[in-house]
Amino acid sequence: ARAREAEQRSLPAQTRDGHRIDIGANINLPEQAALALSQGAEGVGLMRTEFLFLERGSTPSEDEQYQTYTAMAAALGGRPLIIRALDIGGDKQVAHLDLPREDNPFLGVRGARLLLRRADLLEPQLRALYRAARDGAALSIMFPMITSVPEIITLRQICERIRVALAAPVVPVGIMIEVPAAAIQADALARHADFFSIGTNDLTQYVLAIDRQNPELAAEADSLHPAVLRLIRMTVDGAARHQRWVGVCGGLAGDPFGAMLLAGLGVQELSMTPRDIAAVKARLRSVDQSALRDLAERALSADTAADVRALEPSA
Ligand code: PEP
Ligand code: MG
């Protein structure tokens, strides 16, 4: 049975009618790569680099970051690796950075907003990333909490300046879609981003106006809320207009039912905690993409998350 399970995990997430979804792992450390691959990951769809800062109580140097990114790429042996630039603020408070206290940190200087104000954090990280790319690491850079077109234009200009200075190769630069404004304006952002990865944790929080950490409202903070799904559809449509691919790296991707819906909505990659991979693959392999498209259409016109959850793909 063990051998069968391992074999199942290594199969692609391909529907019965031959539609393939790419499967990534959300991991933060090179030491986690081997386990993620053994659980069926085809790459890393989200490496949250803030953990390098959160876990140690000091800011890692450019060299230390370079070593970590290089080690992660090496551990993946050329498989895709999406490294997210620092996403600090909101629920990820870093004491040693001594940032100003905010009344509403989730609505404050977090993610890209902080990066654009703190060249001392952004530039060493980008240098470390481009040095790793220059050594052959097959990495992509992703920016969190993008809300507007000028943010990504400015960040890309900084990337390009650093890349040229280091004589490093071009690497894909993508953005997280996790603010409603970004989903609504996905067509405009797609002009400037090589790919999108939807962060359903924050997107759900911001669409429903529910603090993602509030236990009292945890049941209502449901990513299957049709309003969230409609924004995911807008994101996929906006990306398609500029031939960009769309992944999902929020929690919805690791839920087998959520994964079916996302595939039906036209998402091409799902990235999740490694332990969720086997169940997601098994579910996607048991259905037809045509049935998932139909499932997604019915979900978009449902009234409630509960109604969405009660839907079943047609046989
Ligand atoms: C998300 O918001 O869905 C996401 C993947 O990012 P994080 O959970 O790190 O905020
Ligand atoms: Mg997020």
TrEMBL record:
Protein name: phosphoenolpyruvate--protein phosphotransferase
Organism expressing this protein natively: Hydrocarboniphaga daqingensis
Family under the similarity heading: Belongs to the PEP-utilizing enzyme family.
Location in or out of the cell: Cytoplasm
Domain of life: Bacteria
